[in-house]
Amino acid sequence: MRTVMLFVSLLLTATIAQAAPPAPPLDFRQLVEMPDLPRSLMRADMQDHLVALNEIIGYLAENNLAAAGETAEKRMGQSTMGKHAAIARGQGPGRFMPETMQQMGWNMHDSATEFAKVAKSGDRAKAFASLQQLTSSCVACHMSFRTR
Fold first, then answer.
1. What is the per-residue burial (b if ≥16 Cβ within 10 Å, else e) of 98-122?
2. What angle do CA 21, 22, 23 make, to 5 degrees?
3. Which of 3, 14, 21, 123 has the highest CB neighbour count under 10 A?
4. Which residues fall within 8 angstroms of residue 134, CB to CB, at 6 or more apart?
5. Contact, 76 vs 49, CB < 8 A?
6. CATH for 28-146, among 3.90.1010, 1.20.120, 3.40.630, 1.10.10?
7. Which of 138, 29, 37 has the alpha carbon at shortest distance from 93?
């Protein structure tokens, strides 16, 4: 009888555990609401930045600092700012960002341009230190803000 009771108790415990999945962790990031077009443009940029970072790391692994710097500037640097002006017609992502988020974005573009300069100088150690500054700006923003 004790074995049956233990079995029933374990079965009930397993059933209850399945019925009530754990709650997802809380997300404390600030929600930034924006219309679909600017949000989609920003998301596409963020995805391209991830691909660019992956390419940059690959170039660094190959000791091709010039290509790493070129990729950083062309895909993430200051030269990429405002590239959606024509399609967004004054409704680009930056228009909807809180000031702190805008500043973080500008810092990322500045850091990418600085990394490009450092990488092109050929100093591998300084390039890695500069890359860490670039990724820190990405982390700071993504840990502070969300769009959905």
1. eeebeebbebbbbbbbbbbebbbee
2. 115
3. 123
4. 53, 72, 76, 108, 111, 112, 114, 115
5. yes
6. 1.20.120
7. 37
**Cα–Cα distance, 6 to 135 (Å, whole number):** 53
Total residues belonging to the chain: 148
Give long-range contacts, CB 8 A cutoff, 24+ apart: 1-10.
none
The answer to whether 107 and 137 have CB atoms below 8 angstroms apart is: yes
Q: Count how many Cα atoms sit within 13 Å of the Cα of residue 147 in the half-sphere of its side chain.
A: 18
Q: For position 87, what pLDDT does the model report?
A: 81
141: buried, middle or exposed (CB in 10 Å: 19+, 13-18, 0-12)?
A: buried
CA 60 to chain CA mean position, Å: 20
pTM confidence score: 0.81
| Residue 12: predicted pLDDT | 63
The low-confidence residues of the chain, meaning pLDDT below 50, are none
